[in-house]
Structure formats: structure tokens, C-alpha cells
């Protein structure tokens, strides 16, 4: 097999969920039917790596110091919604119901709560709540997934904020147990937001 | 959402089988955990598009005029195996049973046999059989998929070669009906090759 094809197949297998057979299909599709798409993807990857970094306030991906959601003057500074990923944040935004700020933990908490990479996200959240913007927060809406890991993360954050003058709420249990937020239908998410407790 | 992130999500959705949610997961994985992998993929895509073209003899992807299989002096010129895709060819090669040459049709035949893009592949095959290398071919092994499209393609090729001094065989029916070759286990493929009729 040509070296360039081997490299391409191997690189595609670096994508999450892509094994040898999916990589073949992708490579042959791009080479056979969509070479422009292949070059566009190459440019988008290079540009994304060069330009995208974490928002210094909410930690989502952005191409500036602060993301558009953090700088939007129309948003309510007293409300802060904690999500696991930018995809979860996007799912909440699509409901059109929530007008506060966000904090994106990034990554999922493993079964060992104390050692998961998301612990760093929790630490960053606690720092965020100590800054000048943190003082404005009156309610923290925990919108982590309703999985064992998401519940553990929510519990960890609740515990860490005991004694602080911040109301901690959780999305209502309209969200089906065991599911991940980004796959839930909009109506259910909107209902769960309205019924937060 | 940052423009660079939007472009990346859109470009990833250009990959076959990748919708909005899979694209999000891929983008966030690359940006969060594997920026080197993202750059490697960008380079592999650019290099693949620049270097990879079709072998002038068998039509598979290669970085030279002729692919290594076509130039391998140890292979039997009298046997030519017709496959739909390079992935199918790779599946046959992994059995280690076949020592002839290949012809890769590229693409699948649609329900309308006469109008599918694979018809071009069939025309290219007929041209290939008229060249100097074509004269050496004594047996054509049809290894198209055992689907309606694959059977139609095999039938089309058999008909086109009526009256030519070439034995046309088909992989034996050890291959499960309705399945695509690249997903079949090696033992079944090897058996089907030995029993070709
Ligand atoms: Zn932000
Ligand atoms: Zn070749």
C-alpha cells in the first residue's frame, strides 16, 4: 500500500470511534469523491489547532480571550450553568430557555471521582466562583449528565460550595436516567430547566 | 461559536457517516486531548490528495503510475480478480490465498445497473482486458459483493466477456448472502476463493 495512503488511514484512526474499516471508507470516499472536502478538513484542522483555545472565564473553546457567551451583556450574571462539554452547552442553548452564563468542565469524570480529569474542571469552577464575576453568582445550575459520573460531579460541586451564599440547583429529573445530555430531545431539556430544584 | 470551530465542525461532517454530534465529539476530542493528532491528520489529508492517484493498470490508489501489486513479478498474470473497492482487495489479500492480479472497480453499482458510477469501472475493466496485459488473462475471478448491486455487476461483466477466451469465475457461495465482502471473516473468504466456480 502507498505510504501516503497508510499515513492517511492511520491518522483517520486517531479520530474517536474510528476503526480500521471506517478509516478505509472515509479515506476512499475523500480520495474518490471529495478531494476538496479533504483539503477543507485539513485547513479546518490546522486553523482550529492554531486559533482555538479555552475561554479564560467559562473554559469553552473560543478564538479570543473571552467567548461570545461570556461577553454578551444581555446575559444574567447571577445564574451560572455547569455543563460537561461544549456539546452539552449547545444542547441547552438550543432550547432558548436559559439566559445566564455557563461554565464548561470539559471531559467526563471517571468512576474514581477524586482522580478523573474532570476534577481539574471542578477546581477551575471553584476558582471561577472566587473571582469578581464569581461574586455576582447567586445560583449555580448543575447540568452535568444524569449518569453515575455526572451525578458524582454534581455531588462533588454541591459539597464544595456548602456554606457559600450560592443556591445550587440541578436540572429536574425530566431528563431520562442513564442518558447523556447532548442526546436528549429539546422539550425534555427545556422542561428540566424550568423545573430545576 | 468561534468561526474556526464552526468550520471544523462543518468540515468533519463532510466525512461519510459523521453527523453533527459525532463531529462535535471528534472536534472536542482533538482540541482537548490530541492536537498533535489533528495536525497529523491535516498533513495526511493534504499529502494524500497531493500524492495519491489511480494505478493506471488496476485503478487502485497509489503514489506511482503503477501500484506495487501490479509491478510484483511474483504474481500470476493469467489470473485477474475484480473487486469493488481497495478495502475489498485488502480483505482478499489478508487471506494470503490469492496470487494473481487485481482490478478495482471503485464505487458501487446503483440499482439501475446501466447508469451507476461503477459502469465506468466496468468499462475501464474491459479496456484493461484489451491491452497487452489483458491478453495474458485466462481467468477472471469476480469478487464483487454478494448484494443485488454486486451480483448485477458480476452479471454485466460476464455478459460483456461472452465469446472471449477468458474463463469467468465467481467467489463460491461460502460468502453469506446480503453481506459486503470487507466485513466477511477471512476463513470464509479463503474457502470461497478455493471453491470459486
Ligand atoms: Zn466563555
Ligand atoms: Zn495496480
Automatic annotation (TrEMBL), chains A, B:
Entry keyword set: DNA damage, DNA recombination, DNA repair, Metal-binding, Zinc, Zinc-finger
One MF annotation (Gene Ontology) recorded for this entry: DNA binding
Residue stretches making up the Toprim domain: 78-176
Signal sequence annotation: none
PROSITE patterns: TOPRIM (PS50880)
Start-end of C4-type zinc fingers: 55-70
Gene3D superfamilies linked: 3.40.1360.10, 6.10.250.240, RecR Domain 1
Single biological process term from Gene Ontology: DNA recombination
SMART domains: TOPRIM (SM00493)
Listed InterPro entries: DNA_Rcmb_RecR (IPR000093), Rcmb_RecR (IPR023627), Rcmb_RecR_Znf (IPR015967), TOPRIM_dom (IPR006171), TOPRIM_RecR (IPR034137)
Similarity comment: Belongs to the RecR family.
Function: May play a role in DNA repair. It seems to be involved in an RecBC-independent recombinational process of DNA repair. It may act with RecF and RecO.
Protein name: Recombination protein RecR
Source organism: Serpentinimonas maccroryi
Amino acid at each position: 500500500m502507498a505510504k501516503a495512503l497508510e499515513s492517511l488511514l492511520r491518522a483517520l484512526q486517531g479520530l474517536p470511534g474510528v476503526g480500521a474499516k471506517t478509516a478505509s471508507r472515509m479515506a476512499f470516499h475523500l480520495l474518490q469523491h471529495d478531494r476538496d472536502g479533504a483539503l477543507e478538513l485539513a485547513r479546518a484542522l490546522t486553523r482550529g489547532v492554531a486559533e482555538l483555545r479555552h475561554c479564560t472565564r467559562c473554559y469553552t473553546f473560543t478564538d479570543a480571550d473571552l467567548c461570545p457567551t461570556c461577553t454578551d451583556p444581555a446575559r444574567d450574571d447571577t445564574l451560572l450553568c455547569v455543563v460537561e462539554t461544549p456539546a452539552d452547552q449547545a444542547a441547552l442553548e438550543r432550547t432558548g430557555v436559559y439566559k445566564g452564563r455557563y461554565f464548561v468542565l470539559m471531559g467526563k469524570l471517571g468512576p474514581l471521582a477524586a482522580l478523573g480529569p474532570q476534577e481539574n474542571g471542578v477546581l477551575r469552577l471553584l476558582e471561577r466562583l472566587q473571582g469578581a464575576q464569581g461574586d455576582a453568582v447567586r445560583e449555580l445550575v448543575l447540568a452535568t449528565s444524569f449518569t453515575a459520573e455526572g451525578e458524582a460531579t454534581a455531588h462533588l460541586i454541591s459539597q464544595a460550595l456548602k456554606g457559600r451564599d450560592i443556591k445550587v440547583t440541578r436540572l429536574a429529573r425530566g431528563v431520562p436516567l442513564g442518558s447523556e445530555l447532548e442526546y436528549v430531545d429539546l422539550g425534555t431539556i427545556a422542561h428540566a430547566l424550568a423545573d430545576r430544584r
